[in-house]
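> example.struct
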């Protein structure tokens, strides 16, 4: 399970919680311009734009969970089991599911350009290797003006305009667009008496305008909670306050060890949370065991390099002893 947010506050911010019951050896990775990708369709692809994001790197190949490119276009894949079907279509370029993020971000500057590209390609179910099966995902693609949700079925891509800038997991995105209507009464201000004006009813505590806001960890509830928090969060517009607010939004839907059990009995946790300032190329992250925020600036490296830049996560507790 995961949660992704697209957020504008002076700059453009994008990020997500990655919720899993295991680590996939994730590392922050910068892919420079013109990096070679040997695609499963037999062609050699070089990305035009540099990328930064979280990836598993195998044999110098970055398998991105999410990333942003140097032009500010962002993309993330979120778990979507039992729904997506990857089936190559005639007259379209077949891209393996694991190639999707670098293929789009490597050549598109905007969501509009991504839409045009999607009309030319299809996703195939070709795995990265025999040890890494195909991951069933749906995607959010975002720039500073808009974002879209991408799902894939037997007929190809299903593309949704996203008015809320939030994505979680199952069911399909059309469900979330309908379900949110059940919560249109929620408010950040105190509740008022609409039961009967003859009755002297007053709030007994702050926050009662949001009674009914779901608090469980299901994807549908996390979606509603994230939309509510995103549209009610206030910042002073500074980088520090925007980043702080973004991580607070993610914290509000994070997984605590032991509170969500998978079908195999393992603990589903938020292995990491990230916030990308896509306007500046800053990648912020924190991990389950280290809540101190770390920053990697993609523009402090040579984006015309021939090799990947790979950064191990600082995932050990980092406590400031003040006395």
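> example.seq
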């Amino acid at each position: 399970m995961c949660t992704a947010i697209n957020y504008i506050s002076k700059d453009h911010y994008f990020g997500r919680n990655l919720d899993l019951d295991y680590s996939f050896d994730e590392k922050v990775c910068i892919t420079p311009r013109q990096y070679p990708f040997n695609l499963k369709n037999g062609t050699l692809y070089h990305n035009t734009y540099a990328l930064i994001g979280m990836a598993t790197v195998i044999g110098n190949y970055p398998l991105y969970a999410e990333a942003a490119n140097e032009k500010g276009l962002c993309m993330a894949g979120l778990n979507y089991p039992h729904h997506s079907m990857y089936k190559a279509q005639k007259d379209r370029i077949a891209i393996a599911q694991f190639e999707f993020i670098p293929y789009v971000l490597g050549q598109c500057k905007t969501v509009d350009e991504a839409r045009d590209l999607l009309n030319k390609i299809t996703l195939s179910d070709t795995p990265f290797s025999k040890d890494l099966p195909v991951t069933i995902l749906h995607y959010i693609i975002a720039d500073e003006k808009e974002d879209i949700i991408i799902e894939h079925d037997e007929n190809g891509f299903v593309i949704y305009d996203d008015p809320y800038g939030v994505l979680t997991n199952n069911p399909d995105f059309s469900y979330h667009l309908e379900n949110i209507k059940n919560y249109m009464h929620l408010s950040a201000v105190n509740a008022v008496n609409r039961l009967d004006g003859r009755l002297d009813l007053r709030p007994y505590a702050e926050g009662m305008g949001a009674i009914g806001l779901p608090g469980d960890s299901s994807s549908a509830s996390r979606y509603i909670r994230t939309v509510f928090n995103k549209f009610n969060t206030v910042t002073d517009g500074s980088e520090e306050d925007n980043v702080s607010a973004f991580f607070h939004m993610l914290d509000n839907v994070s997984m605590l060890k032991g509170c969500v059990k998978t079908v195999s009995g393992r603990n589903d946790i938020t292995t990491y949370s990230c916030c990308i300032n896509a306007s500046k190329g800053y990648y912020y992250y924190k991990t389950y065991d280290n809540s101190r925020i770390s920053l990697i600036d993609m523009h402090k490296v040579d984006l015309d390099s021939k090799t990947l830049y790979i950064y191990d996560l600082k995932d050990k507790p980092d406590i400031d002893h003040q006395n």
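> remarks
The longest helix spans residues 219-232.
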